């Protein structure tokens, strides 16, 4: 991870521009707009304090919200994950083993939409549930109030049937928080197995759980993206989109290293 944000390279822009409407002439270049969203994701800057090297913040925020609503960012994230698996790691485009987990984060004051208290972690805010592969890349993300149980919040990750997006999925691994409604839903997906990673009760303190440490590492990577340290978004859709932006920035850096 670089210490300072660097603007999009030509090779990185080539990876994303096909998903954006760049066909007609515009007052503001969409490359600068997308670059500005990545910059906000990395630095955590307020929209109104967007650096002058980028288009006006109102323009950048408009496109970010638009691409969040019309699922452009989800489509782009999915395609970039596939390219990285094929080109960088020489693996099939979609994973066969998936991991699910949730992270509770504090919410900016005066935002009451989808807000709750996670009693187990004493966090007043929201919960991010993610579906990741064994490389730590995020394939799906859903955001709920923090008081929603992990197993209930995770249902949106697999409903509707996620195997349409991930056709090679064979097994999904989670912790014991997902043994209730989530496990029951997984039983209906006969083609995808479900496994709970159980902690050895005889061991004290911090224990690295097989496989599941990967998704915990993904949460740790987010510390480099200051926009994810706390939830600043008024809508859960924009909150989920910033998670995808952080994931895409990591994938684009990985693909760019392959080119250089």
UniProtKB/TrEMBL annotation:
InterPro entries: IS402-like_dom, Transposase_11. It comes from the Bacteria. This is IS5 family transposase. Residues 93-244 form the Transposase IS4-like domain. GO terms for molecular function: DNA binding; transposase activity. One of its GO terms (biological process) is DNA transposition. Residues 8-76 form the Insertion element IS402-like domain.
């Amino acid at each position: 991870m670089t210490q300072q944000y660097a603007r999009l390279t030509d090779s990185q822009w080539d990876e994303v521009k096909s998903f954006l409407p760049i066909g007609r002439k515009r007052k503001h270049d969409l490359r600068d707009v997308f670059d500005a969203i990545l910059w906000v994701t990395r630095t955590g800057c307020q929209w109104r304090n967007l650096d002058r090297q980028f288009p006006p913040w109102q323009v950048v925020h408009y496109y970010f919200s638009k691409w969040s609503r019309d699922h452009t960012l989800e489509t782009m994230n999915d395609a970039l994950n596939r390219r990285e698996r094929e080109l960088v790691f020489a693996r099939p485009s979609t994973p066969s083993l998936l991991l699910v987990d949730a992270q509770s984060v504090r919410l900016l004051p005066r935002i009451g939409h989808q807000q709750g208290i996670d009693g187990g972690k004493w966090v007043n805010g929201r919960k991010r549930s993610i579906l990741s592969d064994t490389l730590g890349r995020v394939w799906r993300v859903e955001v709920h109030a923090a008081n929603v149980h992990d197993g209930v919040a995770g249902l949106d990750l697999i409903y509707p049937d996620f195997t349409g997006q991930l056709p090679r999925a064979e097994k999904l691994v989670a912790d014991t928080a997902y043994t209730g409604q989530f496990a029951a839903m997984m039983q209906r997906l006969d083609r995808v197995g479900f496994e709970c990673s159980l902690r050895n009760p005889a061991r004290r303190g911090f224990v690295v759980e097989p496989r599941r440490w990967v998704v915990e590492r993904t949460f740790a990577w987010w510390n480099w993206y200051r926009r994810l340290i706390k939830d600043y978004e008024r809508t859960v859709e924009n909150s989920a989109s910033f998670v995808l932006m952080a994931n895409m920035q990591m994938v684009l850096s990985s693909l760019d290293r392959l080119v250089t």
